[in-house]
Amino acid sequence: MSLPLFPLNAVLFPGCVLDLQIFEARYLDMIGRCMKQGEGFGVVCITEGSETGDVPDGFSMIGCEARVTDFQKQDNGLLGIRVVGARRFRVKDFSTQRDNLLVGDVEWLDDPQEQPLQEEDDDLVALLAALAEHPMVAALNMGLTASGQHSLANQLAYLLPFTEEDKIELLEIEDAEQRLDAIQDLLDEMQGDMQA
Asked: What InterPro entries does the entry give (predicted)?
């Protein structure tokens, strides 16, 4: 499966919302094509290099498909789009087009069935509810309610201030319970660092 790739300093998760400002010709063309064809594009996290200009020196080989849900011209004249994360994928190979657009040969990763929330998830559910009240999070209109362990894990991994490297590792974990355990471990580390 061939998928246009958009390297960003961010990690997108399934079911999560991301607002982007588009100004480079290669991405304006890509968004136009995706919207005409009703298709998505792939968000991959930059590991070396920058978001603008040439192809970054390094990016994650695991990413998340982004589907455009809304768009508008911004006050600054740029195109603003809102995307929602769909399927996860792994980049098997990639090439760079003449306009510097990256195109990946990707394989879709199976997303496990939603698992019901357990009693031990209560603290993390409460944390998600607290995050939902933050004005920046509320502005995303993600409808932050966890329908199960999978959506809880995706939303927390996306919203919490973990490093991009940690988020890439979380995106790779298929099992929702394991991802929630990994999130809890990262939270415990953060708390330990704050107390030190």
From this structure: Lon_prtase_N, Lon_prtase_N_sf, PUA-like_sf
CA of 94: how far to CAs of 35, 49, 106, 130, 177, in Å? Answer: 22, 17, 8, 40, 32
**Which runs of consecutive H residues, i.e. helices, occur in the chain?**
25-37, 122-132, 135-138, 149-159, 164-172, 176-195
Residue 140: which domain range? 119-195
pTM tops 0.85:
yes
Is the distance from CB of 167 to CB of 155 less than 8 angstroms? no
Claim to verify: residue 81 and residue 130 sit in the same structural domain: no
Question: Which CATH number goes with the domain that contains 101?
Answer: 2.30.130.40
Q: Rounded to the nearest 10 degrees, what angle do helices 164-172 and 149-159 cross at?
A: 160
Number of Cα atoms under 13 Å in the Cβ half of residue 83 = 27
Burial zone of 172 (CB within 10 Å; 0-12 exposed, 13-18 middle, 19+ buried)? middle
* Token duo for residue 53: 């200009």
Q: Contact 6/41 with Cβ under 8 angstroms?
A: yes
Q: What is the pLDDT of residues 106-118, one digit of tens each?
A: 999 987 788 999 9
pLDDT (tens digit, 9 = 90+) per residue, 115-153?
Answer: 999 999 999 999 998 988 888 888 887 766 788 999 999
